Amino acid sequence: MKVLFYRYNSIIEPDILAAFQEIGLDCDTFDLEMTEKNLSPSELILRFGRYLLDHPADFVFSVNFFPYVSEICEKFHLRYISWTVDSPVMELFTSSIQNSWNRTFLFDRAQYDEIHPLNPSCVFHLPLGARTQPKDQLFQQTSAACRKKFSHEIAFVGSLYSEKSPYDKVQNLPPQVRGYLDGIMRAQENVYGYYFIDELLTDDIISTFAECHPSFYRLPESSFLTDRITLSQLYIGNKITAMEREDTFRTLGSHFHVSIYTGSDTSRLPVENLGHAKSLTEMPVIFHESKININTTSKAIRTGLPLRIFDILSAGGFVLSNYQSEIPELFTPGQDLAVYTSMEEMVELCHYYLEHESIRREIAEQGRRTLMERYSMEAVLSRMLLSAFQDAEQGESS
Predict the structure, then answer these.
(1) DSSP assigned state of 221
(2) Residue 286 CA, distance from chain mean position
(3) Whether 126 contacts 105, CB under 8 Å
(4) Does the N-terminal peptide bond of residue 88 adopt cis geometry, omega within 30 degrees of 0?
């Protein structure tokens, strides 16, 4: 079976490509979005269609959902398999999501619950996975000096979202609206496992915010996207993430030595900023060598587990994560990873696990074993393909 992998340089793509090859697929890649950044959408569509004509495949795959890829595959009567790793993915709300040749896999159950009714036979829930083999090979080649360099008490790798908050571009928002939104965002920041922002947004607040934002996001075509979804997930979700990460590392930094690998501004935080980490050669070593690796899930990921948890576990690292409602479904808190439900509990758990090395190491080892048994990339992709190709005629038009 041959797959044409549509790539745009997502961090998870190399693992998926290698796993496809491991399970015996013949892999071809379409890399134009990575190599030619200035192509117009129409040229990209034309080039992809021509490539598909010249390079037949049994299905097309991409990380996240691309409406134009879906439209071309619909015309070719070719399965288009996509798997989200982000939230929100606004393209999921385009009319293309209803195409019968789609097989759309969503890692976050809340995202699935939202999109599944739009195409019930073609939308699936599928948590993420990771590969351990490349990390094992990397560790064998890592010198003692390198291990020491990337060893930390408490480490975090990623953005603080301060530069990823389109909410901050809103202008002249009435004080009462700004105050209300500030209040519900602070309340949501302190609640894990349930996202209630949608329920607290009135039509008047939504329309006022949209009017005051110079580039409020709307899809240019008929779609299922509402301003409520856009404000709740794209604007407020990202803003709360930025607030929470700043508060998280201000709190942690006041109690411990915290090392952060980020390009975000940390000048106001009591942490050590070590800049960017190389994804393939440095990040796994950080996860493996650091005593505690912090995961703070983007608030727009309402129930699911972000890729970062799988990255850390696959490197044999110890995870301390905020609570997500899907965590107990996939892993056992206290055995595979540690979970906090408040800032106070986060600090308490850091103290405890820094003082109990053997327990911490046992949890990291068990978490890696669980990942290898249930969520290796090869196993997860095999489940994906089984779902994508069962009942071959289901949902397809001739």
Answers:
(1) S
(2) 19
(3) yes
(4) yes
Q: Which residues contact 40 (CB under 8 A, 6 or more apart)?
A: none
Tokens for 139, please give them.
């560790």
Rg (CA), the chain: 22
Q: Taking the CA of residue 356 as centre, how many other CA atoms within 13 Å lie in the half-sphere pointing to its CB? A: 12
- Bridge-based pairing of strands 258-261 and 26-30 is unpaired
Rounded Cα distance, 50 and 48, in Å: 5
- Tokens for 246? 């700043």
Nearest Cα neighbor of 35 from 15, 11, 7 is 7
User: How far is 379 from 77, CA to CA, in rounded Å?
Assistant: 27
- pLDDT surpassing 60 at residue 398: no
What is the structure's pLDDT at 395? 44
Q: Looking at the DSSP assignment, which residues form a beta bridge with residue 368?
A: none
The phi, psi pair for 166, rounded to 5°, reads: -65, -15
Provide long-range contacts, Cβ within 8 A and 24+ apart, for 215-223: 215/166, 215/169, 217/90, 217/166, 219/90, 219/93, 219/94, 221/94, 221/95, 222/95, 223/93, 223/94, 223/95
Geometric angle at alpha carbon 83, from 164 and 25, rounded to 5°: 135
**β-strand 102-106 against 59-63: which pairing, if any?**
unpaired
Q: What is the mean pLDDT of residues 319-337?
A: 98
How many whole angstroms separate alpha carbon 230 and alpha carbon 114?
13
How far apart, in Å, are the Cα atoms of 255 and each of 334, 348, 350, 359?
22, 10, 9, 21
CA 385-388-390 angle, to 5 degrees, is: 100
Q: What is the DSSP letter of 274?
A: -
The helix (run of H) or strand (run of E) holding residue 293 is: strand 292-295
Residue 221: per-residue pLDDT = 76
Q: Is the pLDDT of residue 396 over 50?
A: no
